[in-house]
Each structure stands twice: as C-alpha cells, then as structure tokens.
Amino acid sequence: MTDPRSPAHDDDVSPFRTSLLEEADGAGSNPTANPTMGELISIRFSRRGLLKGSLAVSAIASTVSPLALLTAEKAKAASGSAFTFTEVEAGVDPKHHVAEGYDADVLLRWGDALFADSPEFDPKNQSAEAQRRQFGYNNDYVGFIPLNGSAEHGLLVVNHEYTNEHLMFPGIVSVAEGKLKVAPADQKRVDIEMAAHGGTIVEIRKVDGKWQVVRDGKLNRRITSTTPMVLSGPVAGHDRVKTKDDTAGTRVIGTLNNCAGGVTPWGTYVMAEENFHGYFLGKLPEGHKEAANYKRYGVPEGAYEWGNFYERFDLSKEPNEPNRFGWIVEVDVNDPNSVPKKRTALGRFKHEGAESIVAKDGRVVFYLGDDERFDYVYKFVTAGRFNPNDRAANMDLLDEGTLHVAKFEADGSLTWMPLVFGQGPLTAANGFESQADVLIETRRASDLLGATKMDRPEDVQPNGVNGKVYVMLTNNTRRKDDQIDAANPRAKNAFGHIIEIAEADGDFAATKGRWEVLLKCGDPSVASVGASFSTDTTKNGWFGMPDNCAVDSAGRLWVATDGNNPKETGRTDGLWAVDVEGEARATSKLFFRVPVGAELCGPLFTPDDRTAFVAVQHPGDGGTDWAPFGRPSYYEDLSTRWPDFRDDMPVRPAVVVITKQDGGKIGA
Ligand code: FEO
Ligand code: CA
Ligand code: CA
User: Fold this and answer.
1) Protein residues near ligand 2, an ion, with CB under 5 A
2) Mean pLDDT of 621-628
3) Residue 584: which residues within 8 A CB-CB, separation 6 or more?
4) Cα separation, 11 vs 109, whole angstroms
5) Separation of CA 140 and ligand 1 centre (Å)
6) Band of pLDDT at residue 27, cut at 50, 70 and 90
7) 3-state secondary structure of 297
8) pTM
9) Amino acid 70: pLDDT
10) pLDDT for res 33
11) How many helices (H) and strands (E) does the chain have?
C-alpha cells in the first residue's frame, strides 16, 4: 500500500496538500448529469440567433448581460482605477513584498505565545500542550471584531486550516530520487497536529501606529480539533450523527480543516470546515447505509493518521463520525468558555467561507462555496431578522433559515433554489426523510435540483457598497469541452475566474438575480489562455487561481490567490487589487506577494481601511519548481526560512499586518 501521505506521486508539494488538491482539484465527486452547457450554450446560441450580425457574436462570446451595459454607462461618469498605489513587481523569492510606501510587518507566527503562561516556541521540543497555548499552523481566514467600536483595538480571529508535517517537524523526512518521504506519525505527533488545527482568538491593539498582540487578553482563546462543541439546528440529535461516545447525537469533539470563514453582523466568529474527508481512514462495515453519502464527499481520504490513534476517525469503528464534520461552526468570542456550535442549517459540504450581509428586511444572508470541482455555490438566508440593538437576540439566528443552491442560467439570470425537505425532489422517494437528511447530504440534494456545476467555488463575498456579490472560482482542469457552460466558460480551466452577481432589486435575500463573468484569469498575453483582464493590466497585474477575497469599506475588491508558482505563472501568490467599476473594470494590480511556496489567505481590512491583515499560508512548501533552489523543501532543507530567517528556526506560517507609512488608507 502506498502511504497516502507520501508525496512520491507528485513533486515536492506537501503530502497532505497534494492529496487534498488531487481531490479538490481532482475529478470531483459529482456524478450527476446536471446541464453542463454544451446544452446551455446551444440554448443561448439559438436565443441569440435572433439577433443579427456581429452584435450577436460578440454578445455570446463575452457573455454580455445587462449588468455590463450598466457598467458601460457608469464608465462614462468614472475614469481610471480606484487604486493609486505603485504596483509590486511579480516574481518569486524567499521574502514577502508590499507596494512602495507601505509596511508589511509580521504580527503572529505559528508557535507565538497567546497567553501570559504560554511556553516560548521551541520547534525541536514541540508538544500538544504547548501548541494549545500558541498560535496554530497554516493561518487561513482572518477576521477582526472591534472592541468598544474601535478600529485600532479588537479581536483578531484566525483559522488554522491544516498541518504540513514535512515543514513542521524535524527528523521525519527522508529524500530519495528527489522525492520526500514522511515517516509514519506517532501519537505525540498526531496530538500536536490536532492542537495546531482549529482557530485563534486574540486581542490586538495599535500602539504608536504599530499593531501589537495583547498576550494576556482576557478573551484570547485557542480552538482545536479536541475542543468540545455542540451540534445545533435541524441535524442535532438525528440518528445519523449518533456515535458510541455521543448517543444523543449532539456533542462533537473538535473542528478541522477550517478554511475561510466570517464574522457575523452580531460579532461572532464563523469557521468553515472544508476538506474533512482527509481526516478519516478505515472501511465502513459492509453494506453500511452511509456508503453513497460518503462517496459523494470523498470520505475516507486517509491523508491524516489520526484514526490510528483515535477510533472516531476510523470508519470501521465509528461509521457516523464523518457526518459530524463539514459544517459551519459559530463561536461566541465574548466568552472564552463558550461552547462552539456547529450550525447544521447551513448545510454539510466542503465549506470554504461564510461571509454575510444584512438584507433590506433585516434577514441575514450568508454566501457559501463548496470547494470541489463541479460542486456548487450556496446562500443561507436566516428566518429571523438581525437586531442591531440586542446581541443576545441574534445568537441563534443561524439555526433557522433556508439554504439555497445556485443555478446560473445561460441567459445571465440566476435562480437560488431552496433546499427544503418535501419540496421538489427532496422527498422520501429520493431517500430524504427529513430536513436533517437534506442537510447531511446537501450535495446530493443539490444534484437533484439541477444546480450548476462550478469550477471549485472558494470565497463568495457580498459587497454592501455596490450591492454585488463576487464568486471566486479557483480552477478546474478537468472540465471538458462538452462541459463548458456560460458560468464556467473554459475547458481545462487552469487559472479560474470570478463571477459577479447582482441580486434582484438589490436585495441580498432575493431568490433571483443576474450574473456575469467579471474576469477570466491567467496570462492575458497568451491568447490560448483566454484571460480577460483589461488592457491596462500590466505583466505584474494578472493572476491565476483566485481563492480568498475582501471588499474594503469603499467597496473595492481585493483578491488573494492560491496556486501561482514559478513553473505555471512565474510568480508567487499574492494580493491583487481589482477594479470592478467604470472604465477600469477588470484592471488588476499586484499589491503584496508571498514568499516562495506559500499561498495567500485572509485578506481583511479594518473598518477604517488603514490596516490590511493577510495570512501567509504554507510558506516554503515547494522548491523543486523554483530554479534557484531546485529541490524538495522540508524542515532540514528549506526553500525559505521566512519570516525569521534564522538557521535555528523553521519556516512559519504567519499573519502579516499592512499599513501605509503615512498612516493613510490602504491602496488609496
Ligand atoms: Fe482551503 Fe478551498 O481552500
Ligand atoms: Ca481557500
Ligand atoms: Ca486554498
């Protein structure tokens, strides 16, 4: 048996990351025949065929919708880019780089102390106990919750998505024929891995223009893969989530693979559980009723060895445990002893993020991506209304509401289809006995509704300033020519694209909307790539693989990427500023780039736009593709020792804080 964590099958990418990418960017697990738009394109062609001449051709080719016409009108009134910084030069090296006139300072590194009694980081003598008191590994989502309404004092909430053992631990890697081999895990290592997952809540404050961690902040907290939590909402107590240790089906130990997330309007922290399939191993008992469900989610993937030490991660011992992961987890940050709640009403899938906005009528809308090839875009609309004057009244809003899945029609319209038990095909005839079944098998329910299969939906970001919603679709190289559709217009989509949604009547809770492709990513100088950056975009300004994104308080879009590398794009990942309005629409500029091997997560702006937080994830994870290094990177032989650049320190994922040297707003 090949050790699934061995990277022997692929270059020197992290074993876990490789296996996840194989899955996430793999064939996908969506077996349905939902329209993939050979059909929809032909529908579109026949409709447009009524138009005449070149107008019809260009309209089809660029998927022009009324949104674009609106934008063209705005272009007359507006001019130039909304961003005024001097662009960073794209490239690859061991350091991070930010635009001239800005500082980009490391704020929190893996292993940094979070509490007065935290042990100092000692990479050669790690322990789970120490890690539980320190900043975790592979920071992803970053949120900021102001304290006392201040933009200069608040709680930073940060997800720790996964661990890269070959970069974290000394003495476990061997190299043969240019390939890394990671030694099997013992329990001590597994316990450290589990403690390095989860999230951090930490008080930070700006003092004399520089952000500092308040090490003994009374709300500081680590959440890990062993933190007790509860299941809440329609699935709580259902037979399919009951286990030997939780016969009531209401209590879960821990959260894992927390990718992006969000901060709710009522100031709680939501963590998305993404690639949960990687943590399970073993075989389901023969003929077990969850077999088809697990197949749709790729369970078990066996990337981690936790199941060798903890039965709950072994399907043969605890067959229902995977149904207790893949949720959105809500944390009340005001009480460091609060029990996090897995909010099952928001569905179970490979949750990327959970960005939210208050709709016109006070209901709250959460946009959700399911990051796998050919999976779907969702939104959840609360049943209750947000009460800005009573925090306590909002604390269970996430338990009741309607989850919808997106259907992107060929004519540029969008339908949000409700995932409600008893409606349409979501009935006993298709094996659904309750709303709990619909939510546990969200993907299958969406398959039956005929949702549009997307090119790996990552962050989905509402923009309260211009009323639009931005969908990051990172890539999908497995999409075939006969599977392209208007919303996923490129076969072998290596570089991804961004869709812009305008909800009907500007109402985020609407069940109808319009959409268009904002940007097809990749190098616009290579015609066959089919990228659609504006002609003002420089050779530094284009990017591939949009992943996380943010809008600042002016409504400007910032896109962080995952997957640009020396071989494919000649650049590291980074943060790009993307114009969405006026004649500069689809112009992109490089603002910040990461060290070799990293991807960029976050990003996040403080309410005054004077600080941006970005998360540098898995720095040093890769070296073979970068000619000056030219070999696999691991603990003893790293392509970068960012951010400390000390021989006695490994590379460390870290949150970086960006400020303008003159104290002004970022990017303006
Ligand atoms: Fe964890 Fe889809 O990125
Ligand atoms: Ca992501
Ligand atoms: Ca990613």
Assistant:
1) 259, 458, 547
2) 96
3) 78, 79, 80, 81, 82, 534, 536
4) 27
5) 9
6) low
7) helix
8) 0.91
9) 46
10) 65
11) 11, 33
